[in-house]
Amino acid sequence: MEFTALFLVVTVVMIVAWHGPRPLALTLFAVVLLASVATYLHHATDTLTLSF
Amino acid sequence: MTRAFAITLNALSLYAVALVLAAAFAAQLLLHELPCPLCLLQRLQFTVLAIGPILNIRWGLRPSHYALSLLAATAGAAFSTRQILLHIMPGDTGYGSALLGYHYYSWALIGFAAAIVLLAAILLFDRQFDRDDATPVAPGAFAITAVWLVIGLTALNVASTLLECGFGACAENPLVYELLKRGG
């Protein structure tokens, strides 16, 4: 669900960057970058199935 | 470097991102390999990488727009390096299949590193930022198509991740589409 939200926000940022005000696009960019780093920190300790 | 040429390079970079996103979808749909959370994060960073060129095409060339892409590429490189390190032990066959000998996260690191080098290279050309020539260049069909192609592929990822993860947290090792499983 978190990735659906992240991709949705990036889609919105792109549309705002193209059609909307530039400052809003820059603000939303900062939000999505911080959110992606936070998601990374959450998943960085994932235990993946190892093959050995 | 003229402004028009720099805009063309920005459009080409959007087509490159679109190619990466299409290749990721091809692996997911044709090879039936569901992307893991770290894989999705790297895919996401490729889409975030595209925001800088979109701003350059729409609002004119600015160093700050290139800086946004540099930040996204740096984060993406960190994410892919993390996944490479998860599979660095001898005997580990890695996550997913390999393409030309490298797994997708290795290709992602190469892609992000290339993006960082190319962004630094294009920032060397100051003339594109000349105030005397500050009138935004009206984007042509080539650039507009690139913008909407990337937006469309990013929107497809919204649907794809919703199918894969459902309404809960994404599985660490996804094997089935959660939403289809619940529906079936």
Structure, described:
The complex is a heterodimer of chains A (52) and B (184). Chain A is 77% helix and 0% strand. The mean pLDDT of chain A is 88. Chain A has helices at 2-19, 22-43. With 52 residues, chain A is an all-alpha fold. Chain A contains two helices and no strands. Chain B is an all-alpha fold. Chain B contains seven helices and two strands; from the N terminus they run ααααββααα. In chain B, a hairpin with a 2-residue loop joins strand 1 (98-99) and strand 2. In chain B, helix 1 runs parallel beside helix 6 (141-165) and helix 2 (37-49) packs antiparallel against helix 4 (63-86). The longest helix of chain B is centred in the N-terminal third of the chain and has 28 residues, at 3-30. Chain B is globular and about 55 Å long. The mean pLDDT of chain B is 90. Chains A and B meet through helix 1 and helix 2 of A and helix 2, helix 3, helix 4 and helix 6 of B.
Keywords:
heterodimer, A: 52 residues, elongated, B: mainly alpha
Secondary-structure map with pairings?
The complex is a heterodimer of chains A (52) and B (184).
Chain A: H1 2-19, H2 22-43
Chain B: H1 3-30, H2 37-49, H3 51-59, H4 63-86, E1 98-99, E2 102-103, H5 104-122, H6 141-165, H7 178-183
Antiparallel strand pairs in B: 1-2
Helix pairs in contact in B: 1-2, 1-3, 1-6, 2-4, 2-5, 3-4, 4-5
